[in-house]
Amino acid sequence: EETAHPCLSISEDGFTMFYGDEELTQWLNNWDFQDFHFMNVNMYIVSVLGDLIPVRGRHYWEVEVDDGTEFRIGVAYMDTERSSYLGANNTSWCMRHILTPTRKWSQLQYFEHMITVNPVRIGVALDYERGTLSFFNVDLEQHLHTFHCHFQSYVHPCFGLDNPGALTVHNSIEGL
């Protein structure tokens, strides 16, 4: 919760994040310009970092998304600028799902992957030794994208909502 945007609600078990129009409106009415917490001022994207992932081995988790939710999921270094877009810098690697008439799944750094079925569960696989971060549509058993990067230090899973909705993290598996 330390890294969560002020208008995010985190479930008691720490596995679900959500916000709605009411939380955003209330937060904007009380906004302090020095309190960015991973939020772009123009787009009102709210984000949070998860618990630290040890720098070794392979790690896998799944994220369940509400229908109609635009989101970002991936990993980030702790020192990622709080006012930057997650996935649009050299300290975070994220996939972004945006809703368009063609349901486009895209990553901010010029990669686009067109999809026709809105994902319900996204699998995320991090392999420190291979230097890969891969994303999958779990329900369709479909590979979406793999980043190749030799991570220089610990990373945190990161999650962002581009519009009101919810994300829930499931079955973290370490040391595969």
- Low-confidence segments, given as residue ranges, are 35-43
CATH class: Mainly Beta
Structural category is mainly beta
- How far apart are the first and last residues' alpha carbons, in Å? 28 Å
Overview of this structure, please?
The chain has 176 residues and is mainly β. Helix content is 5%, strand content 42%. The protein has one helix at 21-29; strands at residues 9-10, 16-19, 46-49, 58-65, 71-76, 92-97, 104-107, 111-114, 121-127, 132-137, 142-148, 156-161, 165-174. The strands form two sheets. It has a seven-stranded antiparallel sheet. A hairpin with a 4-residue loop joins strand 9 and strand 10 (132-137). It is globular and about 40 Å long.
Outline of the structure:
This is Fibronectin type III and SPRY domain containing 2. This protein is mainly beta and 176 residues long.
Please describe the topology of this protein:
Layout: E1 9-10, E2 16-19, H1 21-29, E3 46-49, E4 58-65, E5 71-76, E6 92-97, E7 104-107, E8 111-114, E9 121-127, E10 132-137, E11 142-148, E12 156-161, E13 165-174
Antiparallel strand pairs: 1-2, 2-13, 3-12, 4-9, 4-13, 5-6, 5-12, 6-7, 7-8, 9-10, 10-11
